[in-house]
Amino acid sequence: MLKEKKHQIFIFVIFALAVLSVPFFLQGNYLLNVLVFVGINTMLAVGLNLLLGYAGQISLGHAAFFGMGAYISGIVTSRYPVEPFLIIFLAAVCVGLIAFVIGFPILKLKGHYLAMATLGFGIIMYIIFNETVDWTGGPSGLSGIPSLKIGPVVFDNDQSNYYLVWVFTLVVMMLSINLSNSRIGRALRAIHDSEVAARVMGVNARLLKVQIFTVSAVISAVAGSLYAHVMTFIAPASFGFN
C-alpha cells in the first residue's frame, strides 16, 4: 500500500509540473481558455469519482451542487462588496450542509432508485435557478460577477485563470489521493465491493456514504464558484441535466 501511494504521488508530481508549465509553451489564449474549463471539469470528475468510483454510489444530480456553488458566489459578490475567496468558502459550507442533510434520506436508496432521486434533486434545483428571477436572473442569467483577486493580483485573463483553476484542481487531486489511501478510502472500497460485508466488519456504511457524498458536493460547489468568477456570467442552462 505504501509503495502504491509513493507511486501515485510521483505520478501526481510529474503531472502537476507538466500542468503548471503549459502556459510557457502555448501560443495564444484560446487553448489556455479551453484548459481552464478542462481544469474545472477535472475537479468535478475527481469529486464525483470519490462518490461513484470509491463508494459506488450513483449521483445524477451533481450539476445542482455545481450550480449552487456558482450562484451563491455570483449572487453575493455581484451585490455586495465582499471578498470573493471568502464567499467560495461560504458557498462550499452551505452546499456541504445541504448535501449532508439530504444525503441521509437519499442514500438509503440503492441502484436505479438512488440515480432517480439524485436526478430529481438536480431537476428541482434547475427549476429553482430558472424561476427565482429576482436572485438568479432566471433564464437570462446573472451578470456582473467580479473576477477573483488576491490583494493587487486580479485573475481576469486566461493565464491567471489557468493557474487559479489548476492550483485548486491539483489541491483537490492531492486530497483525493490521500483520502483514497487512508483508512476511510479502504472503508469506501469495502462499501463499494459489498456494503453488507463492510457493515459486518464494523464500517458505519450509512454515515460514511453521507460524508463522502458531502465531500463530493463541496468539491462540486468550489468548482462552481470558480466557474462563476472565471466566466463573470452564469445561466441555468449551464447546470441542467444535459
* Strand and helix order: HHHHHHEEEHHHHE
Distance between the termini: 39 Å
The percent range for strand residues is under 5%
Rg, rounded, reads 19 Å
**Uncertain runs:** none
Please tally the helical runs, counting DSSP H or I stretches of 4 or more residues. 10
Oligomer: single chain
Structural class: mainly alpha
Task: Note the overall shape.
Answer: globular
- Strand elements, count: 4
Report on this structure.
The protein is mostly helical and 242 residues long. The chain has one domain. The protein is 74% helix and 3% strand. The chain contains 10 helices and 4 strands, in the order ααααααβββααααβ. The strands form 2 sheets. A two-stranded antiparallel ribbon has the order 1-4. Strands 2-3 form a two-stranded antiparallel sheet. Strand 2 and strand 3 form a beta hairpin. The mean pLDDT is 92.
Secondary-structure topology with pairs:
Layout: H1 2-21, H2 30-54, H3 62-79, H4 84-106, H5 111-131, H6 133-136, E1 142-143, E2 149-150, E3 153-154, H7 158-180, H8 183-193, H9 195-200, H10 205-231, E4 233-234
Helix pairs in contact: 1-7, 2-7, 2-10, 3-4, 3-5, 3-10, 4-10
